[in-house]
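User: Show me a protein chain along with its predicted structure.
Assistant: Here is one chain, sequence first, then structure tokens.
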Amino acid sequence: MSGRRTAPPGGWPPPATARLGGSELALGPVAAAVAERYFERYPEDLERYGDVARAWEVHDTQHLLNWAVGDVEGHVDLERQVSWLAGVLEARGFPLEHLAGNLELAAEVVGAQVDGGAAVAERLRAAAARVRAAETFL
């Protein structure tokens, strides 16, 4: 590594909520629950990214959750969005195995904690499988 520190999340801020089946879903608490599981599975990312690791995990997961809900609701193409994110992460040297794992963990949390979340969880699992199957996104 170059010693260059990772900056805090920037760019397009993630949405706080998404509409699923006519109900508002708060994305922050779901993303935080995913982050807890993520860092249990990938504790090395806490060391690799330091103080900003959790902020980035929650930021990106809120986007992923929003895209998955939008896919179910018919106004977002989750596969396209995940492919774009995977390309960005791959270019930055981020292990795509961790993105796939994050998508799987998000599916677990959504399936367990979100009323009516089964279809969203299925879309997240399918996205994880596509990330794992791709050789590259660049």
